[in-house]
Amino acid sequence: MASRLVLVFLAPLLALLFVSGALQAAAASTNGTASTDVFSLDRYGARGDGRHDDTRALARAWRAACASRRPAVVLVPRGRRYLLKVITLHGPCRSSVAVAVKGTLVASPNRDDWSEKERRHWIVFRRVDRLTVDGGGAVDGNGETWWKHSCKINPDLPCKGAPTALSFHLCKNLRVEDLKIVNSQQIHVSVEDCTNVQLARLSITAPHSSPNTDGIHITRSKDVKVTNCKIRTGKYHQHVHRDDCVSIEDGTHNLHVSKVVCGPGHGISIGSLGDHNSWAQVSGITIDTVQLYGTTNGARIKTYQGGSGYAKDITFQNMIMHAVDNPIIIDQNYCDKATPCEEQRSAVEVSNVVFKNIRGTTMTKDAIKLNCSMSVPCHGITLQNIDLRMHSGMGNTVSTCQNAKWRKYGTVRPQPCTAKTYEILELSSI
């Protein structure tokens, strides 16, 4: 009798636990949301063998997910390779959409699959609100075919652009997380005209022979966070140029980059700004807790003569340089031509820039370069707690300045502007 009473008492509790467990399992199976619709590429005819074209299958899965009234997941199944040609996935969508890349998206190796009009893109997301791209899988640009046809590899060839692996245009509330992006044809990730963006835990890799394979490119976007990313975008070799780990261009406002490991590559660059006498605006940039290994530059701002506008309220802090060529550099006289550029009267104004808590080693003697415009000198430049020494103890470092208004706080090594090149405009050191 007692045992029967115990069973009667426990039955409702056991039933409740069973239902709770079932609901948790259902939620887990749909990426944490029990009401999520899942649209697998395989369900829409994808082969996933890395040989057959799966572009149409992805397009169909995307259209179905984008039309879903409930939050939707486009699933790229694990352990398979889905071959894609150029594709644009359009919004707006009826609800939020996540693209869960568990397997690999790989670009077609045939350059003829791109028309001249399309050749700057591969996978594009356009006008999507509340988009997430994640999953722990890979995006493989299959870029070797493009690299060997680049004028950076073969100067006898005409210079033409190549596709960006992942492009995000006019997106809001965007998350791109937990992906491996490798061997892009040119830029790996481009964020353009977007708002409220988070890029996190990305591994971006291209071999030393890859030209112009920038890691993350940001332009005309605001409220962007980049965190916990590892970027290796090429190594100088013959005619090959290293490429930026993070490039920050016109129209970028309120950007925070933190916990990034970079190198080899060009480093982290703001610019180029003001090319072709254009107007440029960049503000509210923070680069924090970054390690750079063997990069051409460390913390860099570059603008063309003849441009206009501003680059202001910029902080580079808590950075460690390992054998970097130019650890700290502002260049308002940037010129990428074979012959010297003509001096012009206008320039993009560079102001309120802080270089703080930066240490490590440099491969060149000039550890700090402030090469500013004669007509629009850079001003409000702060150098604070800096210790930059020659790699392997090969002599002493120096700092060069031209038309720069700066302040020093704490210990700064090398001493600011010890090697004079034109006019140095020094404010009081504190």
**Structural class from helices and strands?**
mainly beta
CATH topology call: Pectate Lyase C-like
Q: What count of helical segments does DSSP give?
A: 3
CATH class: Mainly Beta
The profile of the biggest β sheet is:
18 strands, parallel
**Total individual domains:** 1
Which residues form runs of ≥5 with pLDDT under 50? 1-34, 236-241, 421-430
Task: Say what oligomer this is.
Answer: single chain
Shape: elongated
**Helical proportion?**
10-25%
What's the average pLDDT?
A: 87
Question: What is the count of β-strands?
Answer: 30
Identify the CATH architecture: 3 Solenoid
Rg, nearest Å? 25 Å
- Beta-strand share of residues: over 45%
N→C terminal distance: 87 Å
* The named CATH superfamily: Single-stranded right-handed beta-helix, Pectin lyase-like
Structure commentary:
The protein has 430 residues and is mainly beta. It has one domain (125-426): Pectate Lyase C-like (3 Solenoid). 10% of the residues lie in helices and 51% in strands. The chain has three helices and 30 strands. It has helices at 2-29, 55-66, 144-147; strands at residues 37-40, 49-53, 72-76, 81-84, 87-90, 97-101, 104-107, 121-126, 129-134, 138-140, 164-169, 172-182, 189-192, 195-206, 216-219, 222-233, 244-248, 252-262, 267-273, 279-293, 297-304, 308-324, 326-334, 349-362, 366-371, 378-390, 398-402, 404-413, 419-420, 425-426. The strands form two sheets. It has an 18-stranded parallel sheet that branches. It is elongated. The relative contact order is 0.06. Residues 1-34, 236-241 and 421-430 have low confidence and may be disordered.
